[in-house]
Amino acid sequence: MTKSGSIGSSSGVIWFSRLLLLAATCIMTMIALRTLRNPVGSTLTMGIVVTSPAAATVVRVGFGGFPLGFAVALFGCAMSTRRLLGGLSLLASIAGAVTLARLQGIVLDGATPYNLLLLRPEIALCVLSAVGIVLERRRRRREGAAPTADSRAVAGKGSMTAGSRATSQGSV
User: Fold this and answer.
1) Residues 6+ apart with CB under 8 A from 24
2) Which of 60, 76, 90, 92 could cross-link with 129 by S-S, CB 3.0 to 4.6 Å?
């Protein structure tokens, strides 16, 4: 692999972050769609019995709506280089909270094959998102922080011509 495509390079870090966010987007989308389509059937395999329309809606919202909302947010972050760090932080928060909840369940409710099966990928998402955050912060430090919309607006004011100043002042 060339220097420009290696994980330590700027483009390598960007693509690592994007691929991680897109993988998490796919996982969240699959969870959401399965539950939104069939809340009763999707919970039966875990021994959760949904017995009322209100319960089905609660399952749709909690197990379908929230993961879909996270998937949309993660996808948006993956599409913008400026939002990669925010997306990785969101992913680390989600994966961390889920992993802690899973560990609490194992401690309080006992280790089940289902919980132990999901624990490894959840820990992997935590570790990978933490690695992504470190790499993205390092990339930003190396490149210098990209100008934000606010700093561009301030910088733009100093370079206005006399005619553009008059126009902008007259439109206030």
Assistant:
1) 71, 74, 91, 94, 95, 125, 129
2) 92
In this predicted model, what pLDDT tens digit does every residue of 81-124 receive, in sequence order? 999 999 999 999 999 999 999 999 999 999 999 999 999 999 99
- DSSP letter for each residue of 50-85: --SHHHHHHHIIIIIIHHHHHHHHHHHHHT-GGGHH
pLDDT average, residue stretch 146-165: 49
- Single pTM value for the model: 0.77
The 3-state DSSP class for residue 7 equals coil
- Domain housing 53: 3-147
Does residue 140 lie within any of the structural domains?
A: yes
If one counts the domains in the chain, the total is: 1
Q: What is the pLDDT of residue 171?
A: 44
Give the gyration radius of the chain's Cα atoms: 22
Per-residue DSSP letter, 111: -
Q: Are 169 and 54 in contact (CB under 8 A)?
A: no
pLDDT tens-digit map of 60-74: 999 999 999 999 999
Q: Which two tokens stand for residue 157?
A: 């004011």
Q: For residue 158, is it within any domain?
A: no
Is residue 152 a part of any domain in this protein?
A: no
- Residue 160 domain flag: no
Q: How far apart are the first and last CA of the chain?
A: 54
